[in-house]
Recover the amino acids of this structure.
């Protein structure tokens, strides 16, 4: 049965107004200006992650020449930028292109339902301020909400934490009234957030101890890109940005590949770089030498060696041990050592959730995500007219986001030209399965079974290689393993006269 077209209709609904969502809106209106769209954002502001996280020292963990959009040069002085500068960059991108006029804030999408008879989605949302239900229909939906829960971070069940008389804070919800000057602060964790917080809290006058169960790889990078600055003095802004971006992409991919192919050599190089920075007598093997190989998990980037400097000067100390129990005045470790604390920061990771926890329904049947397979890392088998953005784990998020958005507008353009109303990836039964994120980080391992699967062969394999995706998503076919249908046709078919290799 066809649904009655009573709800407001737009061509495309974009879910999320963060880095990915604003980029998707820009690509859509720049390439297909006649398309109508709406951006539904559950929070009150533009920016996503960069508006949510407010902890001291919040910054990018990759350079801004690759975290920035391909279409908008990053002109800030810092290559490793602070969170406020990144947030302003996203806001300016939205305002300059008029994207902000298409955003509907406090709209939390709860369910999307596809009707093959109508060739459209019904998007159900709820206003967070009033609780009022809101319904739109759309021909295409883009999920740009990332892959972690915005309402809560991950905190383990610590023994005795209820006895602690100090304050326990998770970085995802940093309180604006927290004054750490002169206080003993224990930061629990060893990832990107922890290595950022350590020196930042020390600068605010705290006595900081980083407590980790096991080390992570930490590498220093210049806070400013001298080559990019020099290029801006002799080239137009866009040309200078393009060269700096390409240089940084090549460097990052080369480092990743070298770490994967020659892990022992990579370990040695990282260790030699650390020896001269943390000072004599520091126990590198205990506190800075992980059990896994470089890039089995993401490398933690520190600008201008700030954490190393804080360790060398004694502003930050590291303990590598397990928590036995919290006490009234701090933490007792498994070794028996006690860490006094006024504040404990649980930089213990994220809780992942696919597509913001939205329920996806296709012709009345709820899609079970673990039974779907990711197509080119951006669509789902058996789910029509739906694309999502999940960035790279080994490079800047926006590199993949830009490519996905470019692919989607090419796909929509192809459908317009051929007269199709729907497209759906059709899974090949011969393709084997693998976890969606083949990454050993704890936050991934905890929830990866609730995500879609990936395949063991193209186009179902989720590549973590920008240059391969550049060929596939920017220049490759948009019809391979894809079925198309005109309006009202639920069967879907490969277009007549179309070669699988034809774009």
């Amino acid at each position: 049965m066809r649904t009655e077209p009573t709800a407001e209709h737009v061509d495309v609904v974009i879910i999320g107004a963060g880095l990915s969502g604003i980029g998707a809106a820009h690509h859509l209106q720049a390439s297909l200006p006649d398309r109508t769209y709406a951006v539904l954002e559950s929070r009150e502001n533009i920016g996503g992650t960069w508006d949510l996280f407010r902890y001291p020292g919040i910054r990018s963990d990759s350079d801004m020449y690759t975290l920035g959009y391909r279409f908008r040069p990053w002109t800030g002085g810092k290559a490793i930028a602070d969170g406020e500068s990144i947030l302003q960059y996203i806001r300016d991108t939205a305002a300059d292109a008029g994207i902000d006029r298409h955003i509907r804030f406090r709209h939390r999408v709860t369910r999307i339902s596809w009707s093959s008879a109508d060739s459209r989605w019904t998007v159900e949302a709820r206003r967070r301020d009033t609780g009022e239900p809101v319904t739109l229909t759309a021909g295409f939906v883009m999920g740009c909400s990332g892959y972690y829960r915005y309402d809560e971070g991950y905190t383990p069940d610590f023994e005795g934490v209820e006895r602690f008389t100090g304050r326990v804070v998770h970085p995802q919800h940093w309180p604006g009234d927290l004054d750490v000057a002169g206080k003993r602060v224990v930061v629990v964790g060893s990832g990107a957030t922890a290595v950022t917080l350590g020196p930042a809290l020390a600068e605010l006058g705290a006595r900081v101890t980083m407590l980790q169960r096991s080390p992570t790889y930490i590498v220093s990078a210049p806070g400013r890109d001298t080559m990019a600055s020099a290029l801006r003095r002799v080239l137009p802004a866009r040309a200078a940005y393009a060269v700096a971006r390409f240089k940084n992409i090549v460097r990052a991919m080369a480092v990743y590949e070298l770490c994967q192919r020659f892990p022992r050599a990579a370990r040695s190089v990282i260790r030699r770089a650390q020896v001269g920075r943390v000072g004599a007598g520091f126990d590198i093997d205990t506190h800075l030498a992980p059990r896994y190989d470089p890039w089995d998990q993401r490398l933690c980037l520190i600008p201008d060696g700030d954490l190393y400097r804080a360790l060398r000067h004694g502003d930050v100390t590291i303990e590598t041990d397990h928590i036995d129990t919290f006490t009234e005045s701090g933490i007792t470790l498994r070794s028996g050592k006690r860490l006094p604390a006024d504040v404990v920061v649980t930089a213990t990771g994220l809780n992942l959730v696919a597509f913001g926890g939205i329920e996806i329904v296709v012709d009345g049947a709820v899609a079970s995500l673990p039974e779907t397979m990711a197509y080119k890392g951006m669509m789902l088998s058996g789910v029509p007219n739906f694309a999502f953005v999940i960035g790279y784990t080994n490079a800047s998020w926006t590199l993949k986001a830009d490519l996905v958005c470019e692919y989607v507008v090419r796909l929509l353009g192809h459908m317009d030209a051929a007269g199709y109303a729907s497209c759906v990836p059709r899974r090949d039964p011969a393709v084997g399965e693998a976890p969606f994120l083949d990454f050993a980080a704890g936050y991934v391992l905890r929830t990866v079974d609730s995500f879609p699967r990936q395949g063991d062969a193209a186009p179902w394999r989720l590549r973590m290689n920008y240059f391969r995706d550049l060929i596939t998503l920017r220049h490759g076919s948009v019809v391979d393993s894809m079925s198309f249908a005109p309006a009202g046709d639920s069967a879907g078919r490969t277009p007549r006269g179309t070669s699988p290799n034809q774009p």
